[in-house]
Write a structure and sequence with these properties.
By secondary structure, the protein is an alpha+beta fold. It has two helices and six strands, in the order βββαβαββ. The chain is globular.
């Protein structure tokens, strides 16, 4: 059985998908980009600034479900330029402080709204 998630504290989906979906005790969070949920505008001029907003959006979805970054077991980071690896990692490390999740970091040719970073995640409820 699955249940979709929507919170006004994160950007609304910009396509036919849910912000997140619960299935079997796991929360699958759709890829988040740097949209500021208050303004609907893109936030950040570089990858680090965009990653900050992306992780705030991801955190808002987790929090809406009574979870935190500590519940994340897998994340995927999509970046437009692998040269941003270190800058994104610096921001990412502030959110995943101890026992970070498994992760993939890949360079892609293009992301929605031509942003520089997108991150999705899978979390489990204890």
């Amino acid at each position: 059985m699955k249940r979709t998630v929507a919170t006004p504290d994160a950007p609304a989906a910009i396509g036919p998908y849910s912000q997140a979906v619960w299935a079997g005790g796991m929360l699958f969070v759709s890829g988040q980009i740097c949209i500021d949920p208050k303004t609907g505008e893109l936030a950040g001029k570089n990858a680090a600034e965009q990653a900050e907003q992306v992780l705030k959006n991801l955190g808002a979805i987790l929090e809406s479900q009574g979870l935190s970054f500590e519940n994340v077991v897998k994340a995927t980071v999509f970046a437009k330029d692998m040269n941003d690896f270190s800058a994104v990692n610096e921001v990412y490390a502030r959110y995943f402080k101890a026992d970070p999740p498994a992760r993939v970091f890949v360079e892609v040719s293009r992301l929605p709204k031509d942003v520089l970073v997108e991150i999705d995640a899978v979390a489990v409820k204890d």
